[in-house]
Structures are given as structure tokens and as C-alpha cells.
């Protein structure tokens, strides 16, 4: 009895294990048979439709005019007559450098000029008198020559005194720094009482604020496109050029093409393009980074497909379209009767601009073709397909 029970205990687990293996094999064959069937996909008819899109270029806001204010004379800052960040007008006084020394120099130059003029008048009278006496042969010729020489020296002293006066006047004027044009003045680099050195010390920077320029760089292949835009008579309120602000909001004023740079950078093969944008509310700040959007000038109707329907392989893009075909019956497989069916056909395409979740197809597809939109993950060229909702990938156990 003990031997029989022992054999019973050994055979029972073996039978259970064999049944489990047979069940597993049966399941694998069933799943394998299911995997070999047509792949369920969803289709979409290829159509031409309106495709409004923009080419985008990184841009930088620059001022049309910008000047660094530097002292032209040395001295201590005795006055600052503006608020930092204010809009100032041409000729408005901004800084004052201690003027006492330059006023004294100017007064001294004026006095020297008066003395030189008086000496010139005296020399002129002496020369006139000696010229008259010389005509009467009443003086020696040498005396007349000395008088004429003294007159020329007096004239030269007057000219020198005038030059000194102009220099003194210029220095006195430079002791006050004024705005060279209408614009916005920045943060002052010096404070009241600071010592500044002529032609070295930077006081401030002033730049124009309305309008402003936005510069961006394009490839040399696009020069013809922008030259054509420049020669066209585009209305002032046209939306050909628009801006995306750093927060991705759309700037509320359109711009216009101003100029194309004179030369292409030979190292990068690119060229700078400048646009003008109005800036009445000062939303655009010099140095700001933004995105310049250029409205596409191509035909409005394009072949537009979902971007998820494309497959990238080694830098090239492909799509799958449904193609009708007929297969012969397989005598060994009762589940595969003869008749019409669909297969996936792979096609190479050339893509254009991406618009939201869609992409423009420039070459490779024709209107009316049936594009496979979903279920392309397991497709290959010539694989059988059927209409249906593709199954989501199974989660890993």
C-alpha cells in the first residue's frame, strides 16, 4: 500500500504539468494564428484643403538709432536732469559737468580776443600812417616794412584768439550733455558727484523706441523670396510679418520688410533681414528675443495629413496607403477564403510645414488615396489589413 500511494503522488503532479504545457501550446498557436491575420487600421481619404501657415525665424529687437553718451570733457557731475527710463526729446539737457573752469576759460579767451583786436587796430593805423609818409618820401623804407610786419602779426594773433575762443566755447557746451534725438534713456552709469574722464566714461545709452527693428537670419536660398516681397506693394496693415512674443502671445501690430543685408555670410550661408514694427506702447524692448512669422506665399490648398501617419526611416519619411487586391484560396487553411482584400502599400513622401498636429505633403501622395492613419506600428509593405480600431499595445506583465 505504501508503494502504490507513493507512485500515485508522483504521477499526479506530472499529469498536471503536462496538461499545463499542452494548454500553453494551444494558447500560443491560437495567438499566433490571430497575429497572422489582417491588421486592423483606420483610413482617411487624402484631400487638398486650405493650409494657412507661417515660416518662423528667431529674431532680435534692435533700435533704429542707438547712441552711447560719453563725456567730451573731464570733471565732476554736478547735475542729472532726467528720470531713468524716461522718454526724452532731442536737445533736452541730461547731464551737467562742473562748468566753472570752462566758463573761466571762455571768459579768458574772450578777453584775449579783445586784446588781439586792439593790437591789430593799432598796427593797422601805424601801417596806414607809414604808407602815407612813404608816398611822400618822408620815412625810410625799413620803417614801413616793420609796420607792415607788425600788422600781419597782429592779424595772426586775432585769428589765434578766435580759435581759442571757439575751443573754450566748445568745451563749455560739452559740459552739458543733451539728447541727440528723441528716444528712451537708460539707467545712468554715473551718479551725482562722480568724476568723469573725457572720451572714456560712459554716462548712459539712449535709443529710439517707436518704431523698432526686428532682425532675423534666413538661408541664402530664400533671398529671392524676400527680394520679391520687398518689391511688392504690401499694404501697411498687411499681416505678412507678425511677431510671437517671448511668452508665445501674438504681438498686436503687423510689421513690414525694411531691408535685406548687403552680403551673405560665407561661413554660414545666411543673410540678415530687417523688419520694422510699430511700438506705441513700448511692449518691444531692445534686445528682446522673439519669433518672426512670415506668412506663406504658396498656394492656399495643400495636401494636409495627420503627422502621426508618417514614419521616419534614416532621415526619409514614408506613409502607408490601402490598396485593393485579390488573393487565391489556400486549400490548407479553411479560414482564408479567396476574394478581394486590402493590403498596405508603403509610399515615400516629401514633407513640408507642420501645422499643429498635421503636416503638409509636397510630393508622394495624390488626392483620393486612402491613407492609413492608425495601426501603422506593425505594418510592412504588402501586409494584409482590415478596417477596425487598432488594439493598444499590451502592457508588460
Mean pLDDT: 81
Radius of gyration: 45 Å
Largest sheet, strands/sense/barrel: 9 strands, mixed
CATH superfamily of the largest domain: Efflux pump adaptor protein, beta barrel domain
Form type: elongated
User: Care to count the β-strands?
Assistant: 23
Helix content, binned percent: 25-40%
What is the CA–CA distance across the termini?
45 Å
Structure explained in plain terms:
With 397 residues, this protein is α+β, with helices and mostly antiparallel strands. The protein folds into 3 domains: 38-52 and 300-387, conserved putative lor/sdh protein from methanococcus maripaludis s2 fold; 54-99 and 177-295, Beta Barrel (Elongation Factor Tu (Ef-tu), domain 3); 101-174, Orthogonal Bundle (Helix Hairpins), CATH 1.10.287.470. The protein is built from 4 helices and 23 strands. The strands form 4 sheets. Strands 1, 2, 17, 18, 19, 20, 21, 22 and 23 form a 9-stranded mixed sheet that branches. A 6-stranded antiparallel sheet has the order 13-16-3-12-15-14, with helices on one face. A hairpin with a 2-residue loop joins strand 18 (311-313) and strand 19. Helix 2 (100-135) packs antiparallel against helix 3 (141-174). The radius of gyration is 45 Å and the shape is elongated. The protein starts with a helix and ends in a 10-residue tail after the last strand. The model is unreliable at 1-35 (pLDDT under 50).
Amino acid at each position: 500500500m505504501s508503494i502504490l500511494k507513493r507512485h500515485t503522488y508522483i504521477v499526479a503532479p506530472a499529469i498536471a504539468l503536462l496538461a499545463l504545457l499542452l494548454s500553453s501550446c494551444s494558447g500560443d498557436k491560437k495567438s499566433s494564428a490571430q497575429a497572422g491575420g489582417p491588421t486592423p487600421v483606420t483610413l482617411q481619404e487624402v484631400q487638398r484643403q486650405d493650409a494657412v501657415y507661417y515660416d518662423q525665424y528667431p529674431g532680435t529687437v534692435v533700435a533704429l538709432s542707438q547712441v552711447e553718451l560719453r563725456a567730451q570733457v573731464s570733471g565732476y557731475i554736478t547735475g542729472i536732469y532726467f528720470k531713468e527710463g524716461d522718454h526724452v526729446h532731442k536737445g533736452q539737457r541730461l547731464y551737467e559737468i562742473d562748468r566753472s573752469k570752462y566758463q573761466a576759460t571762455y571768459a579768458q579767451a574772450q578777453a584775449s580776443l579783445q586784446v588781439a583786436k586792439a593790437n591789430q587796430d593799432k598796427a593797422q593805423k601805424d601801417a596806414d600812417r607809414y604808407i602815407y609818409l612813404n608816398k611822400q618820401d618822408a620815412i625810410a623804407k625799413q620803417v614801413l616794412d616793420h609796420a607792415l610786419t607788425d600788422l600781419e602779426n597782429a592779424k595772426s594773433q586775432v585769428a589765434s584768439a578766435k580759435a581759442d575762443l571757439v575751443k573754450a566755447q566748445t568745451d563749455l557746451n560739452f559740459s552739458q550733455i543733451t539728447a541727440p534725438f528723441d528716444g528712451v534713456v537708460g539707467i545712468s552709469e554715473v551718479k551725482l558727484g562722480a568724476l568723469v574722464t573725457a572720451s572714456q566714461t560712459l554716462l548712459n545709452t539712449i535709443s529710439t523706441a517707436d518704431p523698432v527693428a526686428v532682425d532675423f537670419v534666413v538661408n541664402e536660398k530664400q533671398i529671392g523670396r524676400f527680394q520679391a516681397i520687398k518689391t511688392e506693394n504690401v499694404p501697411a496693415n498687411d499681416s505678412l510679418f507678425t511677431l510671437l512674443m517671448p511668452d508665445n502671445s501674438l504681438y498686436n501690430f503687423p510689421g513690414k520688410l525694411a531691408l535685406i543685408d548687403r552680403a551673405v555670410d560665407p561661413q554660414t550661408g545666411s543673410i540678415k533681414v530687417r523688419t520694422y514694427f510699430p511700438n506705441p506702447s513700448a511692449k518691444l524692448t531692445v534686445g528682446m528675443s522673439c519669433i518672426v512669422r512670415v506668412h506663406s506665399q504658396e498656394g492656399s490648398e495643400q495636401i494636409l495629413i495627420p503627422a502621426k501617419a508618417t514614419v521616419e526611416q534614416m532621415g526619409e519619411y514614408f506613409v502607408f496607403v490601402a490598396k485593393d487586391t485579390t488573393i487565391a484560396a489556400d486549400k490548407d487553411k479553411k479560414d482564408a477564403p479567396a476574394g478581394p482584400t486590402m493590403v498596405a502599400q508603403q509610399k515615400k513622401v516629401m514633407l513640408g510645414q507642420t501645422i499643429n498636429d498635421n503636416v503638409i505633403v509636397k510630393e508622394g501622395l495624390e488626392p483620393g488615396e486612402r491613407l492609413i492613419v492608425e495601426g501603422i506600428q506593425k505594418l510592412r509593405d504588402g501586409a494584409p489589413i482590415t478596417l477596425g480600431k487598432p488594439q493598444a499595445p499590451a502592457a508588460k506583465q
